[in-house]
## 1
Amino acid sequence: MSKPFDRLQSVLKLEAQQGYKNKAVVGGIRQFVSFWVEQAREEAIDEADAAFIEQTAQALTDYAQTSGNGRRMLITRLIDKLDERKAKQPIEPAPVVLAPPSLSQPEPDAAVEQLKQVEETINKQIDSAISEPVESQQVETQEQKFNAPVQTKKVAPKKQKAKRPEPASDVYEPDPLSLKQSIQKIKGVGPKMIELFEKLNVQTIEDLLHLYPRRYDDYTTMKSINRLEYGEKVSLIGTIWEVRSRKSRNNQIVVQAVISDGTGKISATWYNQPWLMQKLRSGLRVVLSGTVEQYLGRKVFNSPSWELLSMDALRHGQIVPIYPLTKGLSNYRVQQIAKTTVHEWARKVTDPVPEDVRQRQRMPSLQKAIKQVHVPDSADQLIAARRRLMFDELFFLQLGMMGQQHDWIGSPGRSLAVRGEQINNFIHSLPFTPTKAQMRVITELEQDLKSETPMNRLLQGDVGAGKTVVAAAAIVGAISAGTQTALMAPTEILAEQHFSGLSKLLGRMGYRLALLTGSVRAAEKREIYAQLAAGQIDLVIGTHALIQEDVAFKNLGLAVIDEQHRFGVDQRAALRHKGPEVDGEQITPNLLVMSATPIPRSLALTLFGDLNLSILDEMPPGRQEIDTHWIRPTARERTYAFVRGQIEKGRQAYVICPLVEESEKLEAVAAVEEYERLSTVIFPDLKLGLVHGKMKPSEKEAAMRQFYAGEIDILVSTTVIEVGVDVPNSTVMMIENANRFGLAQLHQLRGRVGRGEHKSYCLLVAESGSGDTEERLRALEQTNDGFELAEKDLELRGPGEFFGRRQSGIPELQLASFTEKEMLEAAREEAEQLFNADPGLEQPEHKALHDRVIQFWENAGDIS
């Protein structure tokens, strides 16, 4: 029997001798077990040992709360089991010890004295496993070190205690075809494992090499609890002492655990994850990663990530990759398979990035980067590897964008004979004076229309900045040149609003307008088709119906796409093919796309690198700011009273919910249930409507029309009304669980009110949350500037929240982040230099790069 079991038995016998008073060791049985379990796990020799260790730790963790008789039965049972296990162990001959005659052998009672040293001994073992920070250096967090590698301080890694496996040879043998083989070729991967990996979109050896870890546990820089500081992002090793769950005031399941590492205790809290009660057990050794926060003067974690402790990695001071997983596939298994794959196959990877680019950027080869990202030798090597892989993604993204722009510029276009006086007449007919920003952009659009190169421009502006008027001026310019125009909107109601507004603006100029949506009757559609083909319609406004095969223009000169993030590159391309034929060659029409989602310029240049950029950075005078307030759920009743007061004044209100129905995984107010509750309990005397994404399009359109017509007082909705709805009479935007949304999305929702003459309000209902959550909500209270909020959102949550999903038409990035401005600029500069020298990537030395860019963009299809 190993030493840990001997020590445990000695402690239990001593506890029995002392009458089960929990005084056998300093700190009590529970304190002893929290340290004993670590050493016992290290010396476990088989699964039976491991199971017994976990059962024993769990049984003794609650010893202090157990009754006297219960303690006696528990101790007796454990001692008997230890005797049984000892009897089954093979008897080994005792080693011969030649002791000096002057030194007597310890008496049996001396073992009791030795037990007092057990806690101190194991504490020292833990202290040695947790490295101390280098003086005068700040220990970096995993997130700082591995997720933001451009400018990262270096921490000296702990000297490794065990020899690592020898890496594969650095002699590279590129063989891309061999990497297309099934992962079945990898040792240890059978049919069942293949099925599991397929759920992670891994089918080939190449796929597995590019299955990058989602994060790392760095066992070389762990901090102990007594050295934690408020606000820092850290990882630590500890033993779970206890786990309990409770319900919050709004019926959310809250799981709390107390973790100790011998230097102190810290509590961790998880929300809406009740299954953790089955996963987290007393006695388990875990690695926690998160931000140290303060609650009632104590250090706490809120929703930290966690993993079971890898004792092998702890002993060897390793950096352990944590992979994306699926049910039935453990991180340890993926780690071992990835390690095998890397050592055997990484040398066969072809490096597509030219050597001169790698040298200028001081980056390792792709083969080495793949090795280090899966089996890092040190923190510095891992940082360099991740930086290389992140650069590749942005580099390929930029090359693809430049290729699209090159194709567009190279496509046949024509200069339109724009009559500037007609644009001026339109501007002077407006009931207001355009802003300087609007006039600047109108001039840019006029120059584009007159150019031989087809316009391909993104018009970006905040809510209420006047994008529609600018687009109308461009439409006037194109019509004045004798061509037709089209405006495509994502929803029927938005198309109808554009039709109504532009009819008033352009109808007086004698232009002929038509509305083409899915709801238009078949006979009317056929008539519109015929008029478009005959050139009898100057401007057609519609939805996706505009790009159907049946729609043919006689002379399309300008296409405008509103809320462009609802459409992708394929749909933009479909409009290109609607241009006329001149001398047997199809002419590409001018394209103007508009977005009401403010995007930082660095991000816009990346996401829309194929488009020229125009920004309306000035708001029209008189545009009122919306009063925004963060409301705690306890004040919800007063909020309802305020909403009722607005309705009694003849106004209308929105109530936004993040989900359609209740979800066990994400406890939030759901639109369907909230609509029922508000209709029957809170506002039974008012008219309420419901809109959500699971409704039929006709049902959504009907509810929106009722709200637009003033037939509904309160519209309960999900974020389907985020953009495009213009109801001037609505003055209240109440957003439930506002902490569930990103800044940009909240700003878009807020923009649905304040569109009329009445004072408007945005009420953000949310509990206090993490630091990032509070920072978002406070930022909304402080400013109505969408571009300022966009920069903040990019800083806090990355680019995903700008659209709530992956940008349509843009490849998904695995490692790169658009917040890395320096790397973005470096990738763009290198791409421009290379593209200028070889636009088609046709030179022999660029063949691998050409193929890789195509592969990278293969999955960039539209999301509908």
## 2
Amino acid sequence: LMFTDLRFVFRTLFRNRTFTLVTVFTLALGIGAAAAIFSVADYVLFRANKFPDRVYLVGGRTDTGALMPVRFDYMMRAYEQTTAMDEYGKAAFVAGNIVIKGQPVATSWLGVSPNLFNMLGVTPALGRGFLPGEGKDGADNVVIVSDHFWHQFLGGSPDVLGSKITMGDTVCTIVGVLRTGQVLPMYFMADVFRPLVYRVNPQQPWLPQLWLLGKLRQGVSPEQAQAMLSSVKLDVPAPLREYVAKDRVALSTLSQLNQSLINAGIYWMMLGAVGFLYAIACLNVSNLVLVRMLGQRRELSIRLALGGGLWRVIRLLVLESVTLALLGALAGALVASWLFPLLLRAAGTSFGGMNWSGWLLNWRVIGLLGGLTILTSLFIVVVPVIRLLRTDIHAGLKDGGGALGESRALGHVRAGFVVLQAAFAVVLLCGAGLMVRTFQNLRSVNLGFDPSDKVKMQITFPPSTPTEIQARLARLREVEAVLLRTPGVRAVGFGNDIVLPGYYFPNVELVGPGGDPLKASVSSFGNGFQDAAGLTLKRGQWLTHKKGDDILVNEALARVLWPKADPVGQFVRTVNQGPETRRGWQGWRVVGVVGDIRANMRESPGLCVYGPETWAPFNFNTFVVRLTRKYDEAFAGTLRRELYAYDPQLVVDQILPLSQVRDQQLWAEHLTDSVLKVLSGMAALLTVVGMFSVLAYTVDCRMSEFGVRLALGATRGHLMTLVMRRSLLLAAVGLAIGIGATFGLTRYLQSLLYRTSAQDPLMLAAVGTILIATSVLACALPAYRATKADVVRLLRSE
């Protein structure tokens, strides 16, 4: 019997191909988008944060509460003497070039203790892990590479094990390859891993920074472990005492660490947004099924009258809804794995290069598809079944019963569906509008320089580089000259990282107005930096670098210290440097005012002092290169090769266009903007399809009524107005409800908004225009069809 019913359902759906295709298309968009967003959110929020429960990151806390590494091996050795942990794993980024076939490659190198991967539960897909004895000098010439490194630089060759690559001064053998998409904790992500042999640079004993993992001993709580580690007496060398964190020991699980470094609110917001789209799809389909059932009212009444049985008819409706939902879910799988990523790439993002091809392998997403299939089936069938239970068989059997129209209650239900559909579409359109305005506002922020033709390079000098000021400056100028000789380079400058470093770090207290302390940032740069970076001099002159007490200040500091006076010629003093420090010293003399330079896209420029290049050249590791050509990866490779030929010990850690640095700081806004634009576009499309389909069915059911109206003197314009007026009224009600809901939901987007609000009249006007235009587009063809009623034929049939 069930097989017979299924055959009947498939025949019916095939006979009504237009209805079936529209319904499956609508469900595919809603279910597919939901599955795509869920797969990403599930990966970021849950699967990428699954680490062993008893493994903790051991570090300290900064004044701002941020976790910091252990930093020093003497602290690590002291902690190992306690019974708080069963074992410790260590990691540190090591400065050194990675060379393949004589050419340096752009990648990162992490030194790890041989037991670290076992602590994290990481097993190479090819080869083996590190052996206990390989963490010693002379035995550390083995490496494990990531799947990305294997494919990008080694061609993905299956016989990669045993291959040689050069790490710094050592030729190393590849003994393992990590699996595709291997998830590691933040701060432990790299392309190449080598056993860690910790070597302290006497000139910079705080480098390299150590990241320390501890596996909690059985029976010891995290609080007890923290107390044990905090009670350890440390013999801190005098030069290092200023670097010890105030809160010396802080434990954090790896999941907590990852969660603190991602913006989880973005992914919850995307899940909420795709929920609105899914609701629009279900409302559309439910409305379509209702309208179709009204057209079949007489057929259903005949079935009931001939003894078909109410529950037999309900079973047919349930089977039909399950079939439609299942077809929608299968088509949704294609949408999620192909169409949705394609639309996101067209909108300018790809979820950080996530591998979409493997999303269906996640059982959670497969479970979601199954759950959505069941939920969609219920959503589709519940109102038609309720309507069927209330069917008046006698009314349905009357002549013309199929054209008598719907009941007042059912009309209200369908009108409510249209209103909710419009309201949800408005919420998505408003969200997309807010993010578009935010993204535009952030992109138009005055950075204090033009990033379009500039590249920022981070360089690590070998330990042998002299720290004496003049020798260090000579070395920096040699590097500058090498870069200037490279074709395509217009200007080069070196100094501290002051152009979009991502953070503002006040490192000195100045004497402020009234003698109160004023926190500011002190940096310095070489004499070619301002030209290379394109900084703007607002007053005075650039530093001549002849007098160590001459400084530049930015506009923000000038406004605070001298709001009504000319800053040039004024003096700036630090709190801890009074007259007793240097007899007759008045302070740093301001010779010029520089335009404010952004450290972060969202934060206002801080208070900054810029000193001459002789202040701290041993801290200079940033070069800004101004180009005469378009930047690409080939040019980045040229810069690496030129510096490697100059000094193989010189390490280029990073080469990034400043425009890309800016975009990286806006990744959250960019991702949200792209996703909401795609979802709102789908919502607008579903709104058009839904309104059009429902109106088309409604007009077909009312063609006899329209014929009567025309016979009684109604004009075709009156009929068009009649069809469109009610739909536009429902759209207007949905617009009002959607805007009200947007005001209430804005607080969940507030952390992402920048210089815009939900009450933005331009955005609201644009959303209203889009919705009304969408409604007119959906109504136009059915309204026109209503005017084509054949009065003579319709009256004859009645």
## 3
Amino acid sequence: MRSDAVLCACAALLAGALAVVAPLPALLAVAALVGLLGRQLGVGRGFACAALFALGAVRAHAALLEFDHAHAQARAFLAAPERCSARARVLSSPTWTRGSVQYMAELCAVECEDRAALPDLTARLYGGPGELARGDELDVIVQIAPIQMFRNLGLADPRPRAARRGSVVSGAVLSAAPSARARGVAAAIDRARGHVRRRIEATFSPAAAPMARALVLGENDLTSEDDSAFKKSGLSHMLAVSGTHLVFAVVALVHALRFVLVRVPFFAAGHDVARSSAAVGAGLALLYADFAGGSGSAWRAAWMLTAALLARALGRKPSGARALGLSLGVGAVVDPLSAFDLSFMLSAAATSGLIWLGQPLARPLERVRWRPLRYVALAAVATLSSMVPCAPLLALLGPELTVAGLLANLIASPFGEIVALPLCLFHGLLGWLPALELGVAHVASGALLIVKAVAHASARATWLAFSVPPPNAWQLAVLVVTAVTLRRLKRAHAALAFICALVTLGILERAAVRAGAPRGVLRVTVLDVGQGDSALVDLPDGRLMIVDAGGFVGSPVDPGASIIAPLLRERRRKRVDIAVLSHPHPDHFGGFLSVVRAVPIAEFWDTGQGEREGAGEQYRQLLAELRRRKIAVRRPGALCGRKHAFGEGELEVLAPCPEFVPGLGANDNSFVLHLRHGTQRALLTGDAEAHEEAALVARFGSRLRSEFLKVGHHGSRTSSGEALIAAVRPRVATISCGMRNRFGHPHVSTLTRLRSAAVLALRTDQLGSIIWQSSGDGFWLSAFGMPRVDETELPRYGNR
């Protein structure tokens, strides 16, 4: 198999960006591939690929540095959400989700409450008039703040994705008055999108309208249940603007144009109609990608189709591999961080599978005479060949893969791609024929509802699903090198290479398991969950404890589903031995319901105050789920007064003992946990305030002595009093607080008290997640935004 030099060069440019977050795996993988393809590429082309890889890394690094600088500036002048007035100009195509519009906007003449004018900003805004297009200008009053990124060691770096979104500030539009209406191609496309959106909502079945909008406009407005079903069933691609959609829409237009032009005598006589219509189609592909929402997968497919159509327009035979390579190269040139766009990479992986797996497998099947059998066989090959390369990427998104997806695709494809897709696209042109428009909408709705039913049925077939760990950077590198190697070797050698790859992946997986569940150490990982609290505690005997699970009141963000459960998967943790709710406040229990549903939990520690005095519907649902799953709920009476041994370590519950104090606030009834491992100790105080702190000092005094302190109540002025700090005498303290919190946490007085006591104070809003690990006779620190630091190096770090 010959290697296409253009594909290799463009792939190298794209892959260079990955070196920013995983430099060593990316470098070794590229070195292996250049060595493997060296004889065909030649020395010059090999060096060119290496140079393009380095260029991609430099451009991605520069993009991240620019984003970090802009984000730091935004935090400097917007420490918390503020109400501001501004002139806004719409920069991105508006999309609708949950009945509200969202878009990127340039904010000029920004004035906030009791503040001098701020510099111009680019912000992601939520809300405003329904009729918006790129270039429109508005006078707005907005509530804005720097974007909150959840930066946790072990999970993917959120900065590339945030940088790709193009803003460091986001917020809600409180009021808006249009001041200027834009003209031009971009504005016309957005107004056409708005017209199609309104007609879909007016004529499609309410249950099918969100799917039709996803299919035509690229807007994901599915319910959480539907979205989950499509992901679990492997049918998400049917509601994405992918290569299939572009090929159908654009190629249909190209054929229609050729049909018309060939019947125009003066034009057909002097021009090659096929080449002329292909040239027009190249431009139509780009326009359609923009109309369809401009996702990474849409643009990649559009660039690939454009390359193929231009080749045909120039009288050349299109090459699938070269067209794929050009689409990757254009993506990397336009966006240096496009390698971090999962939809872009899934589209590239699926196309690669169709070219290098699907085509060889399909050739013998084309000789099958019975058409129904040939159709089913070819459809199965296409589905399988596109799904196999995507499997590692899909494993990054969820804990399971399912073989039901193969059957689901075979059943749903005729309804989704043969019936629903063309009808949904045709529907947008029928506004002048209301009866036909309504009829088409009804038929398309029926087809989409069948696809939806197949997705839900496939998702319920859990017996066909199997758990997979998320591949780390090293494993992904091995998979890429193996895939290229297998395509180049003879069958006997390929079998040996496959076995070597399996052994290597097994060794890497074993290393990941050991790193995720260490033994003989005490590791406290304070998670970045925004303005909330959550920590993972790896106990010396290998058991795992979770203390709190974060939460946001009135926000759709679920830290249990988006942070804690994925981190448990990354650490290969399939069980939680102890889950502790320090006290029944939403910013501590909001994520627990998702955690309880994601992994088995042996026992749950709860003060009991929430159940007796009430803590809201979400807390009630949590208790009900615990009891439904027969998880033991343990109260202070069963936990206080004794030391709990965990191998070489022990844990003591210091408060509230012997039970919570009725009538006292939940903060001052927080669980306070004291952990000991050799000479090292850690104190976790929940949201304890002055009353509980005074009781602790009076009862335990110097027994509170700990090297590590989890500061109470997010650094509030009512916590971490001088008496507690003097008794604990910590060397390191962590403060869990969010970038967008309205409470001024951590308070200046708390930071001053810690600084006066020579305590190194580390904040999750500044550093992301923080790890404190004890070996029994010493400790080290690490954070998302700070390299590993041994305890002997603390003095030179000073106080943060």
